[in-house]
Amino acid sequence: MSDRRLTPFSGRIGHISLKDRGVPLTAGEPACVAAPLAALRAAPGGAMDRQLLFGDAVTVIDRRDGHAFVMAGKDGYCGWLAEQDLAAPRPATHRLCSPASHLYPEPRVQAPPLHPLYLNARLTVTGESGPWAETPQGYVPAIHLAPLGQPAKDPVAVAESLIGAPYLWGGNSVAGVDCSGLVQLAFHAAGLACPGDSDLQQEVGAELPETAPLKRGDLLFWKGHVALVAGPGRLLHANGYTMSVAYEDLDAATARIETHYGGQILARRRAL
């Protein structure tokens, strides 16, 4: 059975990549996310699967009741967004490299911000005004941006910048993030491909034998959960135990999860 999260079919219209499925197909129309965070849902107005970020590229496949069925360009995740959260496509030049920032109507610290921006938001820089980067939507502190061609060197350091962020199921920002959202944010910032959910993340990278020593940046998987190895005997994860992004002792976390949730480590992966 096809995974609905990765199948670009709205229930009545599919993307041309499906081919020979006996359903109406479309090439879709390009668009991008115009909201700071846009909930990607399983159905119009339904439960949130994930969040997309400002500037994320999408392909719109269908529209219904004020919602658009889209396929995300960064990971192929499919779902429904509110149409008001979409805008015409634009070529991004930079990404937000700080946990959060703001978009301003003018290059002035005292100006009331238009809205927040979050890590990995994609922006089109068209000019500079002192310490400010100018975009078609407004101004952003240039120190909070990095060119798309300059990824972060250490995904774990990126994840560490979100320590203390509240836990949010399906969240993808410092305003609220879950275990797989944290991993995806960190790996995307480092220029590494990464799916959106932990079961999908468990299928990428290289499998590590149980006896292989772990190193910083490796991933450990339990049923429904993923954590980053931050160092010897130390994990970093967004978790429902502390309801935050936090460090945890590896042995303590393993014992706690096994005791309270009946789960053992299912896989150890290393990014390629």
UniProtKB/TrEMBL annotation:
GO biological process per UniProt: proteolysis
NlpC/P60 domain location: 149-272
Molecular function via GO: cysteine-type peptidase activity
InterPro entries listed in its UniProt record: NLP_P60_dom, Papain-like_cys_pep_sf, Peptidase_C40, SH3_16
Enzyme class: hydrolase
Keyword Oxidoreductase attached: no
EC numbers, comma separated: 3.4.-.-
Entry keywords, A to Z: Hydrolase, Protease, Thiol protease
Keyword S-adenosyl-L-methionine: no
Record family assignment: Belongs to the peptidase C40 family.
Protein name: Gamma-D-glutamyl-L-lysine endopeptidase
Species of origin: Pseudogemmobacter humi
